[in-house]
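Aim 2, interim progress: modelling of the adenosine monophosphate-bound target.
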Amino acid sequence: MITVEQALDKILSYATVLEEEESPILDSLGQVLAEDVYSDIDVPPLDNSAMDGYAVRSEDTGGASRQSPRLLCVIDTVPAGSISSRVVEAGTAIRIMTGAPVPEGADSVVMFEDTDEAQRQGRPAEIGILRRVEAGLNIRRAGEDIARGSMVLSQGTMLRPSEVGVLASLGRAAVRVIRRPVVAILATGDELVELGQPLPAGRIYNSNTYSLAALVRRYGGIPRILGIARDSESSVVAGLRRGLDADMLITTGGVSAGDYDVVKDVLAKQGEIAFWTVKMRPGKPLAFGTVEGVGEAGTAKSIPHLGLPGNPVSSMITFELFGRPAMLKMMGKRNLAKPIIEAVAESSVANHGRRRIFTRVIVEKRDNQYFARLTGPQGSGILTSMALANGLMIIPEDKGVVTPGDVVEVMMLDWGEE
Ligand code: AMP
Ligand code: MG
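Predicted structure of the complex, ligand included:
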């Protein structure tokens, strides 16, 4: 048996960063930039007003106060998007809206609240300034956000909503990113029934395909559902053949020691088997190998194949631990680890087998501290326990028992990516 880290290292050594693609900026959310992005414009393009108010020459406001307003002649109004043709000269002001370019001659903006506009009727021809202002007040400078010619985002940056916004502010409709991996998912098992079909006695619905496809999508990949293979080598091989253009193949079931566990035999014949079992629970029977697939323009490529266990909880947890980091590496991401916090255990858990245990827990914050309690029974078929959990408590191989009050590490399942 190998450790979780050894298994992960092995799997990652087969995951390579995918090619670039041009993608509309909104579709590229969560993807990694494959180019340095420079700006060919200033943002904002011109000095403009940060307030609704009056553009003035600051020297004209000397001595102005509520008691003795300084009266200026209003010569124009300029909304956002227009440029005034008038020049602010001594004794004059231009009414200006937020975002409108500052007119020539003016060096500051007095906001409405610092004028007597509210006491006047309609569009006043004259305005009283109620305070002295410094040059530059309420003016946003051209290029203060982004200077023309500067590098705004560098290659390797993960695009979050803020980066999508920055790209939009440059006028970029599309951008070069590393493409999303296609992850093909094949369920195996004679007992499995597809959704929407009646359920004969002794059969169960295929849930793994959907929990795994949801995980793939959550982490930015494109799930490709290959359906259900029966417990025969020919059926598994036929199923896998439908996924040979994917970037990663995932099967569930058929990797333990049972009579009908044929996936491991298929792996042994088709590709290279990297390992069989991992020192963890759940998820001990896990297989990894490669399958000869078809790349772009019919070229041969080696596709990593993760043979996940069939139990619904095990398949989800092993995907989180091994499938997700492989996907993220393909996407060019640097941080492959899920967030881990320290919490105070509120349940006891025994670890007899000297394996690393991942238990489903509910993490709550109370008095500035995290607490973690078991979701209930931890059978690896109890999928509703995954639905209850927001974290996985990690019990190291050498820790025989966790007792309430122990400080433990918890991998958070729903926290965002960095
Ligand atoms: P296996 O690893 O094939 O022996 O499967 C282990 C357990 O997981 C068995 O109880 C299977 O019925 C169950 N199982 C396998 N595949 C699926 C699936 N796609 N959906 C739900 N349960 C499954
Ligand atoms: Mg099976």
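The mean pLDDT is 95. The first helix runs from residue 4 to 13.
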